[in-house]
Amino acid sequence: MLEATVANHPTLSDTTSLVHNDDTNLLDLLLNRLVLENIVAYLPVSSLLNLASVNREYRSLVYESPGIFRYLDISKLRTLQFDAAKIDCGSQVWRNVQLDENLTEDDFYSGPLRGVFSCLLRKNILQDVQTLVLDGLSVTAELCNDIIQDACYSVQILSVREVKSLNHGKLRQTLQFACRPSRPEGTPRLKALYVFGSKDMAKPSVDAPERRNISSEWNHKSQRALTSSLANEGDAWWHQKGAMLSPKRDMDGWAACLLACQGIIAFDAILCEGPRHYNSPAFGQMPAQGSGEPEIAIFALYACEGCGKSPEGMIEARGAQHRLPLLSPPPILSSSLRAATTPMQPAQSFAARCKQCLHGRFCMGCNKWWCESCYTPPSHSVNQTETVVALDDDGVMTVSEYSGSGVSIVKPKAMVTKSCWECGQNCESCIDHTQRMCRCCGGGYCITHNEGCTLSHCDWCTSRGRGLGRL
Ligand SMILES: [Zn+2]
Ligand SMILES: [Zn+2]
Ligand SMILES: [Zn+2]
Ligand SMILES: [Zn+2]
Ligand SMILES: [Zn+2]
């Protein structure tokens, strides 16, 4: 019989050999709550069901220990992958195949997933799921609505990143309805929604229980965790700076939804709190342009290069919960909002801004920026048609058309300028670093983007030189 010890599990061939080995007494080990929680969180539901089928003790361990099915990631379930691929060309199938007349669009696109859910419901598993990961699958807004509203679900953290067939407008309606001021107490159960980011890196299939046993699954996952922790660059927003989200279609309308859900449901995006938005703590405290409508923050920033802070206040790890973005991947060992928003390593505070709030005040090369208190870009100089928001002596906000007549505006020196189309707006030191004048033709070039150039000669002169050399 194979030796089964905690330290030497790689050689185990199947679940049965693991659980029948008297020396190991796996059952005793798993009865330790801490051990159990740390193991089951990394096992697919199919392995847990296999474990439960071994004998009565294991069955009661799996079905009667609270929280065994708390975390459920079925994004790689093989049957759903297959159906998702079929659904990709669904419109064609929709037209050509004689389908049941009563089949709704939602039935069609969320059918496979609903089938899995009804199976999990029959096995009394679905009710316990608090973190549900459906990334990349075919997930309709109606299904999300059921997960959020239906009493048979207890989902607190839901991940629907890069899902197919999702109507974002309908999902926003569901969320705004769930967070309406007149909502019943204790609702919604959902506390966190991952919808903006990219799904986590491809994982090995967690389906096919007949070909994968608990021990090999465990090995695979710990290896993956180790690899990712070794390659870990730190958490988005906290340890990485620059653009955190790529603006996608369907982004319109999400900012108002985030504001309506603020403090109730957290997202893997946050609102920009630049002074020009009415949701900003700094709104009205300084002249600002724009309509004041909320917008989603795209960029994570260090403090302002000029004053070392930001007008709206930097976002702190221990600060107001509603300002914190959900961090990827969704936490495995806990379904709490705190776990989903706490960076893994100690992190400095950051500022989060939308594109408009950084216009003309942000270097795309080194992510430095200058806040509204420290700097007004020349392009922002007030003219006759601009709206100015300011507080009067009584602290009352006034919005007025600013008349520039009689006001002499000294054009400030620009902190960022565009020397290279690809580099975009850059600060002086980045420009010094990347832009050169060719010693041969005197033309300007960028050492990052003019492929084939040298530190002294532009790409054109360099290639011409080579050509001449070969003659
Ligand atoms: Zn500043
Ligand atoms: Zn903004
Ligand atoms: Zn720079
Ligand atoms: Zn460049
Ligand atoms: Zn040249």
As a whole number of angstroms, the C-alpha radius of gyration is: 28 Å
Tally of alpha and pi helices: 15
Strand order of the largest sheet: 1-2-3-4-6
User: In terms of per-residue confidence, which ranges show pLDDT below 50 for 5 or more consecutive residues?
Assistant: 1-14, 90-98, 203-230, 382-409
**Dominant shape:** elongated
Q: Spell out which ligands are present.
A: zinc ion
The figure for the number of domains is 4
Helix content: 25-40%
Number of strands: 14
Structure write-up:
It comes from Emericellopsis atlantica. This is F-box domain-containing protein. InterPro entries: F-box-like_dom_sf, F-box_dom. It is built from 15 helices and 14 strands. It is an alpha/beta fold. It folds into four domains: 68 residues, no CATH class; 147 residues, no CATH class; 175 residues, no CATH class; 29 residues, no CATH class. A hairpin with a 5-residue loop joins strand 9 and strand 10. The N terminus is likely disordered. The chain binds zinc ion (5 copies). The site of one zinc ion (ZN) has 8 residues, from helix 15.
Task: Please outline what is shown here.
It comes from Emericellopsis atlantica. This protein is α/β, with parallel strands linked by helices and 471 residues long. It is built from 15 helices and 14 strands.
